[in-house]
Batch of 2 targets.
Target 1
Amino acid sequence: MKSNLLSKKVENKLNELIGQELHAMYTYVAAANWCQENGYLRAYDFFLGESADEKLHSEVLQKYMLDMGSCPELDDIDTPEADYECLNCVIEAALEMETALGKMYSKFASDLVAEDFMTLTKIQEFIKIQTEAIGFYGDVCAAGEGLSKDKFQQLMLEKILVKN
Ligand SMILES: [Fe+2]
């Protein structure tokens, strides 16, 4: 049996972050479904892709724990809120979620400085992922600022969200 290199505190936090990544996975499925339901068919594909990425993120964290000799504990995933009013709202919610997750990783990283540089190095990958997501959704939000909920205007926003 492998010896466990992680402290209980670090294990708990990693388990929590795995849960957050899986919750993001679930939230993007809900976002994708809302898009399909409301005729934003390209955004549907886009958010399903985002969901797949989040699953991958959770797997990277889980593999890290396993490599360190610790078995991840999978928590319940809360039902995501998906009562969006417009595509703009979906994007704003994504920005909010990614920002909150970025702050969690950042806080965790600063706690790790004094105690666990191996985990800190891993977590830095996630801070990079979060800053890119925050930048991306921030840009799309800025593009959507001032648009009405008019379908045609929202379809223009979809074009900006899904560039190719
Ligand atoms: Fe993620």
Target 2
Amino acid sequence: MILFFQLLFLPNCEVPNPDRNLKMKFFSEIFEKIIMCIICRNEYDPETLTKLDCRYCPKLTSIPNTLVNLTSLNCSSCPNLTSIPDTLVNLTKLDCYNCPKITSIPKTLVNLTELYCVSCPKLTSIPDTLVNLTGLYCVSCPKLTSIPNTLVNLTVLNCRNCPKLTSIPETLVNLAKLFCWDCPKLTSIPDTLVNLTKLDCRNCPKLTSIPDTLVNLTKLDCRNCPKLTSIPDTLVNLTELECSGCPWINSSHNSDYEENVKKFKEDYDSLLSSTLYPFLTRKIVKFLIPIEI
Ligand SMILES: [Zn+2]
């Protein structure tokens, strides 16, 4: 990269032709070579390569299926990459963030423990064979309709901004962190997720309740959930709660402001006397701001 800029700003550098277009072509070719990955430059040994980072390569269209020893692959932001080979069976970590041409993740990648398939507009599903996954990050996948219920080892699931997602599988009982905000079709959080410590379900307009079984929650963000009417008083481990923009504390989603204020005061009174109150030390103020009690 440094070489490129040095060449670009050297006034008397030697180029094959002084013509401006040819000069730009020359620099563009150099730049392309600098940012090309080791696959495109053919500078790799398939026998020994275990970790491949080919992010931002503009040329890469495919990954060699001979790389069977790869354990980690980062092919984020490769605009022309169309697929991941199904022969990469030793992969434990795959990051294909922002790959607009990828349509699927091979079901043979059964050793994956971490999968980042964020902003993949053509991805329609996650294979149900990936049972060793502990972290799944499938943020902003507009065609994704479901999360497989076989992924029982997941401890972190980030499925934010998946507009077609309608539910979270109740089998994901090991989940500790769930980020499902901006999911307009999500109607519920399973009451089986008893190991959750962090839940971010902001901006879920169809969500009607938070399960009272989530007793290990320490952080809950449920801002702008207009159908939420209460927060269970069983969540005694909560230390951070963000709930502004919910109609029971704010009139913005409901024309009956007076009724909401009354209801909030009742809820607030009951909150003060509930077992929850001593634990809501850090962000309780967010309860109060919206209606200026
Ligand atoms: Zn490349």
